[in-house]
Amino acid sequence: MTPERVSVYVHIPFCAKRCAYCDFNTYAWRGAIVRDTLEAIRLSIERTEEADVVVPTIFFGGGTPSFPAPELIVRILETIRERFQVLPDAEISIEVNPGSADRARYALFRQAGFNRLSMGVQSFDDRLLVALGRVHTANEAFRSYDAARQAGFGNINLDLMFALPDHSLRQWQHTLRTAVSLQPEHISCYALTVEPNTPFFRLNQRGLLNLPDEDTDLKMYLYTIRALTRAGYEHYEISNFARRGHRCQHNMVYWRNEQYLGFGPGAVSYRRGVRWKAIRNPRRFVQAVHSGAPLVQEEERLDATASLGETLMLMLRLRDGVDVKAVEQRYGVNLPQRYAHQLNRLRRLRLLEVTRDRWRITTKGLPVANSVCAEFLA
Ligand code: SF4
What we know:
By secondary structure, the chain is of the alpha/beta class. It is 40% helix and 22% strand.
């Protein structure tokens, strides 16, 4: 039997400092616990019972994988290669923060086999970077980007954010223009969302966060699409833009609701219809690895209906939309029949374009894409 294709995600839950808007599972810790956690992640990969797969993509995310000692990160990648059959042309990405990566670090990552960088730039406006609690300046982002190119990275993503506190359309246009002038292969643009349990949430509750109104938010998003497509980027997912041949293959796995294994504190895995999540707290994760206790904190078995709903919801995020025949084959259902009600409604509202082969969110539907996608959840 041909082994299944399963992607690998590694969660490095540490950052130099927590940003004011961040609700990811990450900690501004230093010292032995960082080293111990990375070694525990490595051991959990070495001991996994899920290694009977071929791996088309690997993604080191976080947190800030470029923050801890790079040789420990490289060691984890080596262990993945020892334990799994990683495809020779696998996309191997690492998230980096311009404040914690220099040329030597990039060179080490490149040499180890990482072939894609995702750089958390967020903005080229120093005042906004301070407001966000980022540890780097715009100049540091330029230097870091150049260093990554010099180290041989030919596939770089820049992460940018809009709809920030006191953010004007002009400032956003400047950030986008600057990003385009650097000619990265990929650009991700997300609107800020204020998440509970973050400093931004508390500020917002006290009325101290001056967020752009919905109208400006929408203008920023529509401008993004216009500007980036004009600059030669393909708008291939609601928030993602790529040069030809540079879509993020790892994220495509998520958007097609395909299988992946996650390693590290709080990492999520999805295989054979089961989704599970590892222990979130790094100290508890390390203890569990050393005592041989189960690393799973939550587990959810998705029945066919729930899985189908999620697949549609995720695929609709892609500008290619839902490949009707492929999904029908995967789930053995007649899609137009099963979703007749939703299709009629969304088509009437001109939010969804429906043909025999594809369902695609229309340009009108893009600003409300999350609600359109949610219609298909079980
Ligand atoms: S660098 Fe990224 S993961 Fe770390 S605190 Fe900031 S937003 Fe969160």
